[in-house]
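Let's practice the habit of predicting before peeking. Look at the sequence and jot down your guess about where helices and strands might fall. Then scroll down.
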Amino acid sequence: MDKITRKTSFGQWVSPINLQLFDELVKMMKLDFYTKKLTTESFLKLLLYVQLGEVESLNTLSDCRFDDQLQKGIGLDSISISQLSRHLNGMNPDLFQRLFLDLVAQIHAQTRYQSLLCR
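Done guessing? Here is the structure:
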């Protein structure tokens, strides 16, 4: 996830994700074991883009033309519906759960710290 810099809006949205935890989970779950093109990292970025851009379906996603900056950030020139579908079906939801819980823990830590300063 290091190709998207913090200077872009998308980079700022992705930056709170604990990359070390992400890499450990991908290796532990062997999510990229047989992957050639659509890595878990690229897929996660693509899912974030889809959510933020409110893309309606896999067909719409594969039809849309990514801008150059997003293509570089995600690391994909093109994407097919079959690739997306296979990756989505094979994705372990535990990865997303662990990342979500880590983000919540970061929020709690920051909130607690700020509430202690206000006292």
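How did you do? Residues 9-118 form one domain.
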